[in-house]
Amino acid sequence: MTPMTQTARGAEQVENATYGDPRRAREIYGEAFRLTFEYVYGSHIPGAVAEFGCFEGFSSLLLADLIAEFRAETEFYARTFSRHFYVYDSFQGFPESTNNVDSISYEVADSGYWREHEDAAPPGTEEMLRAEFTRRIGDTGWTIVPGMFSDSLRSTPLTEDVAIANLDCDLYSSSVEVLDHLLGGRLLPDGAVLLMDDYNCNRANPRFGMRRAMRECFARTDGFYDYSEFLRYGWHGRAFFVHRLGDSPDPDA
């Protein structure tokens, strides 16, 4: 039987790659994302929402709905900011793992789950997301950038502050590309949140994946940025506060 496209079967049937039970996935991601939005809006942190890696669009649609919901909360939150929504994804699955960190990692060398072209988005995913974003948050409040991060972050770079960044890019190399772009461009304001969807993958070994990428990329900022834990979600994800130290006044000075 020929698989139906995303557009044909509807956004309500979009699946999550981590959980086979849609109710469980909505419960875990819904609470983590909502807490993140409540914190960012309650703390009056400016900046866009950006997602790196969307698969079938499960988390993308949750984030779009929260943007629309919180945009309307002008009476509760004393100050709100414009939240453009950026989604970067190859829609072709993973790139080839050409560096040693990824090529010997558990998810590539052992399970094979993150090998080249695995988790490619089903046909019609990008078109479905464009239609759903227009319906949920309007014609101009979002941008989808297709392509591998190594290409898309150069051809269509992010240039504005990012208050919430959801990294579901799995591989160490892809995580480094995204983090170096955000941190190197100083795009994360003080208090921004990094949602690291695959933090405990690769058996939570600090030599691989997002754990290693976080450690190395923040070290390259030479003290301008630091991070601390915010919350944990599911068996896999962890959210972090980003602390911008390089241009902040020192209360002990």
UniProtKB/TrEMBL annotation:
The keyword Transferase applies. InterPro entries: SAM-dependent_MTases_sf (IPR029063), TylF_MeTrfase (IPR008884). The keyword Glycosyltransferase does not apply. GO terms for biological process: methylation. Keywords: Methyltransferase, Transferase. GO terms for molecular function: methyltransferase activity. It comes from the Bacteria. This is Macrocin-O-methyltransferase TylF. It comes from Amycolatopsis cihanbeyliensis.
